[in-house]
Amino acid sequence: MAKFYGIGTGPGDPKLLTVGAVEVLGKLDILYAPQSKKGGDSLALSIVKEYLKDDLEIKERHFPMVKDVDIKSKAWDEISSEIVKDVEKGNEVGFITLGDPMIYSTYIYLFERLRGKIETVTIPGISSFSNIASKENYPLVVDDEELIIVPCNMDMSDVKEAIKNYSSVVLMKVYKNFGEIYEFLEEQKLLKNALMVVNSSHEDEIVYRDLGEVNRSEKLSYFSTIIINKNFNTVD
Amino acid sequence: MAKFYGIGTGPGDPKLLTVGAVEVLGKLDILYAPQSKKGGDSLALSIVKEYLKDDLEIKERHFPMVKDVDIKSKAWDEISSEIVKDVEKGNEVGFITLGDPMIYSTYIYLFERLRGKIETVTIPGISSFSNIASKENYPLVVDDEELIIVPCNMDMSDVKEAIKNYSSVVLMKVYKNFGEIYEFLEEQKLLKNALMVVNSSHEDEIVYRDLGEVNRSEKLSYFSTIIINKNFNTVD
How many CB atoms lie within 10 A of CB B219? Predict the structure, then answer.
């Protein structure tokens, strides 16, 4: 029986795909790839393209990045209906998503709509924060410490609370409130324990081991992540 | 110049290795593999064995799992000195570790001792919690929610605090305090939002979508993980 596969591509480098993901990608009949802009390139598709078979049908679909839940829901409903039809016709169908499918991915909303209708297999991927820590040789967490992952589009008071209370903190999407985050890290004397990577694992990746070097008048990329570890300095 | 590679193997299934990890494993001259018991099997080694070249030298080394930091430090010092010598002789040397090297791994202690002495490349791996979420189709976290990862060998009051304050919680090493954790989840009416996996991604894996089914008089495995998501029920 045909199945639907939700596949994590990792953050960007095709070598971060798992062996299992590559195997599944190579046997698909139809692959859905998300576009953040209508008609724009799919970042996830660029990661996997070397592993796809020649006669694969690729369906790039636009996932609106807006606040309005109704607009987003409409897109998820339409795409999931299309996926169900494709699987019911006997096609092996895949959907690719950046990073890990179960950590802050739009895949979760698709999956909720497919649940119980078609058989779904989810394949994990390397998260951007895990890749940053390894690539920059900057440990995330040891022993009996907690690790907290905080998307910074939430309330800044909660972000500050997390930074104060935990020794290992990942701050995602820092582009919006970078100024305020920087000031708080400075106040907490944590600048030497904070590493920022912009566009992790892409051609235009920038690594800041000293946050003071960031040009604060320029707009940061959506894919900007800070890792804080109070027990490790970012520079020797 | 020869390098040292710290390689995350993922939680158990060899298909969870990344393409990059497989490439590096295939070119090593010497591989260090951790044993938790002296002379015992290395779990990490069993995961990677199909990807190793025939003439590879394998050095299984014992990492004591004790509280005494002096005993552990002595082992880390000895093993890291040996690694430095092997690399300085021109060998490509690897070390394998379960899950992700920068998340709760002994690798971090080795790495601290190698820093500045030999060139070190760290290759990320799939974490057990990420694999459990995908394999069980149980989403970890969406949107502007925080995700907290809690090793339950810490103070139980901190564990309870995390469960109360966050909607997405990973509890690792629940074997020690499972009784108390179960009672707290029951009290907080979270039993339907808690999924437990014992020995994730191994032959003897057990999945509990209903924690009430756990035999509480039996000793749980060290590798027992609970995922809590207050926005998703574990059963439909």
Answer: 9
